[in-house]
Amino acid sequence: WINNAWNNDIHGRDCWAMKHKNSHLLVGYWSRLRKNRDVPDQSDIDPRAIKRMLSSIFILEASDTDRPIYRLAGTTLCQRFGMELRATNFLTHWESKSRSALTLLLRQALRMKQPICLSSVAATADCGMAELETLLAPISFGDGPATRFLGMTQLLNDPAAMTGRPIAFQRLIASALVREDEPLPNFEMPPPTPPAESIRSHPRAPHLRLVVSHDKPVTLHFDADETLKRLFTLLGAQPA
Asked: What order of strands is seen across the sheet that includes strand 69-73?
């Protein structure tokens, strides 16, 4: 079955749809943020509007699609891989054939300015297996073209299958561009809260900015408002 799915992906036959509710929610949020632009800017992201998904959210720097780098990653996602993901290569845990395909898929999503959904099989070192769904929505960073992704990875089967066992290996089995003219389930999501004018005075300023230095990488925490403020301050940092 995995080999068949792999071959379908390589030949571009998209015969599946997003499965996880949060994938639909994130696409809807991304679409609302665009406001008649090709893609939203990173500074438009309001963590309060997506706080229920934050532990699985990440920002990917993909100006070099051969080496896309995590700018930040949520705690649940880091726990899934058993490591702090910030400043690491997104392709590290993918097998070689998947890495080659993903490089092209990331490039295509940025060029077409459309979100892309990835279906993959993940395995632990002791052969525990799980199905993952990853949503990547292109975003810009200040002036210029889209070079980053607002992303989210969700486990589609029982989380108990992976408890305490980090992902060691991941294989892409299908991919599809997400088109906005496709019908989405009627999931409700609160609109983003408009920021204060002073916060948005700088073109690269995020919605929540706390003037504080960080000596260590900060990991996303699910419902801690103060941590969210510190974390999303990092969104204004220069690319690695």
From this structure: 69-73, 57-61, 148-155, 129-139, 116-124, 167-177
How many other CB atoms are found less than 10 A from the CB of residue 189?
16
Q: Is 76 helix (H, G, I), strand (E, B) or coil?
A: helix
Distance CA 129, CA 34 (A): 36
Give the chain's length: 240
Beta strands in the chain (DSSP E): 57-61, 69-73, 116-124, 129-139, 148-155, 167-177
Please tell me the distance from the alpha carbon of residue 108 to that of residue 116, in angstroms, as a whole number.
9
Q: Which residues of 174-188 are buried (b: 16+ CB within 10 A; e: fewer)?
A: bbbebeeeeeeeeee
The model's pLDDT over 53-92, given as tens digits with 9 standing for 90+, comes to 999 999 999 999 999 999 999 999 999 999 999 999 999 9
* Average pLDDT along the chain, 240 residues, taken 10 residues at a time: 38 58 93 93 94 95 97 94 96 95 97 96 89 97 93 86 84 89 44 37 34 34 41 47
CA-CA distances (angstroms) from residue 179 to 58, 124, 229?
Answer: 21, 33, 32
Distance (Å, whole) CA 236 – CA 131? 33
The H or E element that residue 6 is part of is: helix 2-10
Cα separation, 224 vs 216, in Å, equals 18
